[in-house]
Every structure is written in C-alpha cells, then in structure tokens.
Amino acid sequence: MKRIFAIIIICISFYACKPGIPKDVIQPDKMEKVLYDIHAVDGYITTLPRPDTAKKVGSSYYMGVYKKFDIDSATFERSKNYYYTKPDLLNKMYENLMKQLELERKRNDKRVDEEVLIQRRKELAKSIRVLHYVSTSATPYTNLVNPFTFVQIAIQ
Question: CA of 64: how far to CAs of 14, 82, 86, 98, 126, in Å?
C-alpha cells in the first residue's frame, strides 16, 4: 500500500512540474501582437533620414507600444530572451506574424492602387479640354463629314 501511495505521489508531482511559460514572461498570443507592433515601429524608424531623429521618435513609439500592452521594456526583453531559448514557439509566432504582415501588405496595396486610380482620374479631368466647333454656314453641322461612312473607290 505504501508503494502505491508513493507511486501516486511521484506521478502527481511529475505532472505538476510540467514546464510552462513563466508568469513573468508575456504569453505567446500577446507576444505576437507586441512583436507585430514593435516590428511596425522598427520599419517606420528605418525610413527616417536622421539617426538622432530616429532615436527620439523611436523611443516614444516604443513607449506607446509598451503602454498599449501594459508592459515595460524589462518585461519585453525578458520575454524576448525567453522565447529565444524556445525556437519552436518563436518560429510559430513569426509564422503567424508573416501571415498578418502579408494580409496587411495586400490591404495597403489595394488602398494605394485605389488612391493612384483616383489621382489619375483627377489629373485626366484637369487636362480634358472642351472642343468648340465654329460653323461658317448658316445651319450648323452642314459641312461636317461623317468619318464612319464607307466610300467605295472605283479602280480604273
């Protein structure tokens, strides 16, 4: 009886010590969202022309991301280091991020295409000129030739 009780205790403790994500680390679903926003900020910062401007603007954007997800930079760094040690979890998160970024790129391409089409229509509307025909005869349009009439030429 003591052996069975000892085996049950060992089994319970084995399953209770199941490795999981620690409480001080951002959970994977939230970490995906944080990484998405962090990478969006990184992408924007790389477009800025001056490095000092990028540092000033970047720090405020990063703080905005941290505030949005109610975390701080230390928690983000700790979580990032944890997920670096778990490449299978990190890989799964980045696969989902790539899908999200691809959908976002398609939406932006569609929006840009629509904006370009609207801009081209505006430019065409500006360049259209109204053709005024001044008739020299008393009745208008009497000296016009219909360009769509078929004329047979006799070959001699």
Answer: 42, 23, 27, 23, 43
The CA distance from 61 to 40, in Å, is 10
Chain segment 63-105, per-residue pLDDT in tens: 999 999 999 999 999 999 999 999 999 999 999 999 998 999 9
Distance, in Å, from the CA atom of 89 to the CA atom of 15, rounded to the nearest integer, reads 21
* Residue 93 and residue 31 in contact, taking contact as beta carbons nearer than 8 Å: yes
Contact (Cβ atoms closer than 8 angstroms) between residue 26 and residue 76: yes
The answer, yes or no, to whether residue 51 has pLDDT greater than 70, is: yes
| Identity of residue 156 | Q
End-to-end CA distance of the chain: 125
- How would you write 17-50 as a 3-class SS string? CCCCCCCCCCCHHHHHHHHHHHHHHHHHHCCCCC
